[in-house]
Amino acid sequence: MVRAAVLPAVGAPLDITEIDLPEPGPGQVRVRLAAAGVCHSDLSLSNGTLRQPVPAVLGHEGAGTVAAVGDGVESCSPGDRVILNWAPSCGECHFCARLSEPWLCMNANAGTTVPHARTSSGEDLYPGLGAAVFAEETVVPEGALLPLPGGVPLTDAALLGCAVLTGYGAVHHSARVRGGESVAVFGVGGVGLATVQSAKLAGAGTVVAVDVSPEKEELARRAGADEYLIASDTTAKEIRRLTGGFGADVAVECVGRGETIRAAWNSTRRGGRTTVVGIGGKEQQVQFSALEIFHFARTLTGCVYGNCDPALDVPVLADHVREGRLDLGALVTERIGLDGIPAAFDAMLAGRGGRALVVFD
């Protein structure tokens, strides 16, 4: 039996309890978690914004040590340090094989519908986003693991599994920020802070961070933001003032709200680029006129998992960490135990803090 945070039903409070986790079967690996990040996507799974079979063990951003392997597993062994990949690509579908876009893999989330454990009463449990890292241990397919390069602290490495890949990819793969360009980042939680760091890593000129919380200014500036704005009806005008009157070259939206996406679009110059990484509900609508689309010649782009190939991007990120160019610890505002996850959800709803990190003994 292992302790885990279980979502008994959509919209229900998390239950911190013991679950029955089986030994790994063929092609599976059991991982002892060192840490797990509390991501807004977990909140979206819990409230039904994203679909998830229940009851489920949530959590998808994690790192740990291989505890046991099933028959046929060749890529890792007990004792190996690994990062969880919550969207492992199949390598065979239309997006993987023909388009070389593994972040859009048609089968990446197939594991979410397959029970991976049982409650203490024998009821099937499903793995949140296929990873189920809000637990002391988890069992996942071999393909859902990435080797952790040396020189990266195991606990902080959990952030590479989602927040950092997403923020880095939004800047480098989706928006393709070039040296000297101005960047506006809307929302500075864990992903937003990673986006700010990644923009500076790309050689951006002025980086403007925008959030509803005055308390996040210190976090944003520590991550590399040159300017900090409290979100308001005049945000786009203020960003134009800070960028020579033209607007930002790039805006990255990390919130997932219709009004924030619209504000990000408004804040960019003619010909500017807006990348949306925030996950909003289908009720969040954004409206544009045909004339403004023609006149401003801006682009609006969605971004899934940072448009990353984790197998290629994680080693690059690890090198940045080792060389001091990327500070994983700067994203973390609270280190908690499993019992602290409900309060971390409340903090996200209230717009407080960066990333809360569940640290296991």
Helix/strand layout:
Blueprint: E1 2-7, E2 15-20, E3 28-38, H1 40-47, E4 56-57, E5 61-69, E6 81-84, H2 94-98, E7 117-119, E8 124-127, E9 137-141, E10 145-147, H3 163-174, E11 183-186, H4 190-201, E12 207-211, H5 217-223, E13 227-230, H6 235-242, E14 248-253, H7 258-267, E15 268-276, H8 290-296, E16 299-302, H9 310-322, E17 332-336, H10 341-349, E18 355-359
Parallel strand pairs: 4-8, 11-12, 11-14, 12-13, 14-15, 15-16, 17-18
Antiparallel strand pairs: 1-2, 1-4, 2-7, 3-5, 3-9, 3-18, 5-6, 6-10, 7-8
Task: Describe the protein in words.
There is one protein chain. The chain is of the alpha/beta class. It contains ten helices and 18 strands. The chain has helices at 40-47, 94-98, 163-174, 190-201, 217-223, 235-242, 258-267, 290-296, 310-322, 341-349; strands at 2-7, 15-20, 28-38, 56-57, 61-69, 81-84, 117-119, 124-127, 137-141, 145-147, 183-186, 207-211, 227-230, 248-253, 268-276, 299-302, 332-336, 355-359. Strands 3, 5, 6, 9, 10, 17 and 18 form a seven-stranded mixed beta sheet that branches. A hairpin with a 7-residue loop joins strand 1 (2-7) and strand 2.
